Write the structure tokens for this entry.
Amino acid sequence: MSVALNLLYGILGVAALYYGAEFLVKGGVSIARKLNISPLIIGLTLVAAATSAPELVVSINAALTGNPDISLGNVVGSNICNIALILGLCAVITPLKVDRQLFRVDVPMMLLSAVLLVVFYLATDGVGRLPAAIFLGIFICYTLWNIRQTRRSGAVSAEIVREAEAAVESEGGKELHSLLAVLLVLLGLGLLVGGAKLFLIGAVFFARLMNVSDAVIGLTVVAVGTSLPELATSAVAAIKGESDIAIGNVVGSNIFNILLILGIAPLITPLRNVTLSPIDMGMMLFCSVILLPFMRTGWKLSRPEGAFLLLAYFSYTAWLIAA
């Protein structure tokens, strides 16, 4: 009975995380509009961060409940999953055209974030408050710079502006009454927090049942579960032929995962004595680095490259389970 109950906890937790992020962004977009914040800024901040909300809440909750392996493993595993599984799957569905501005600015930022995480982790076997403050500072500077560059005439392509504003329209939908918008935000936050607790209860139970470490469960089950919003968004975008959104969603999420999540969670409670292996960190770094030559060849991610990423992901997951 406890197996079925914990499985139900996991399923309900994933559903609550997904809809919590949806409600949070819909209410937040409506409130931001009423405050006369431009759609462009909303699209580049609130909507862009929405798909990372499950990772953020789960990592903070795991850190607070004494599971630093799950907290950090969730971030590392999500970044691996986003590139190797999600981008790999999308590229197999249809070759993905690469936006050159994304390649020149955002992909290097993603790679820098991954390198810094590896350096900090290898130096301290975790992420303390000082590295967290550095991550958060970089995130704030990057976000402000991104908004400034995007708003400057001719700084970036008009396509990026249209995508950001279209994202706000799709997420915000019809104008909501102020009270309803606030209620949606509160409901979204409640679902995120409750969903994180349920999901972690189920994940930790099955980890103990299968004699799997917290690190492995964070790198696999928790990472995939919290990456479902990215998977849904990118897969739909790929099917519709919106390559820029499919790739940009993953790259942006990976930047947010490291700079924002690991800029907040360790400030609340440092992630100490984490047992992720050098291979786990190396896999995250490998996925970030391999994107550069893949994206540069013909300015697209081809089907063979997508198949390679999928093979790498399933091989790594098989190694985790077997080790």
